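Request from the bench team (R.T.):
"We need a structural guess for the complex before ordering more zinc ion. Sequence and SMILES attached. Just send the tokens back."

Command: build protein-zinc ion structure.
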Amino acid sequence: MMQCPNCRSKDIGKIGSQQYYCWNCFIELSILGDEWTVHQVEADGSLSSLDDIFTAEERKIQ
Ligand SMILES: [Zn+2]
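Reply to R.T.: structure attached below.
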């Protein structure tokens, strides 16, 4: 079961082949191997990485 690494919500929507969006905390999630990479969508539409605020353990897809 996929869970948001940030808020642990399971309310995750698929927006692309490897891309997901958390409807609870509004971050974009991509799958890289068996880990999430986490991005925040900025007001101008660009993405900034949030990976460094999570540990590898937290980003593991369970
Ligand atoms: Zn979330």
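Two things stood out. The first helix runs from residue 56 to 59. The pocket of zinc ion is lined by residues 4, 6-7, 9, 22, 24-25, 27 (CB under 6 Å).
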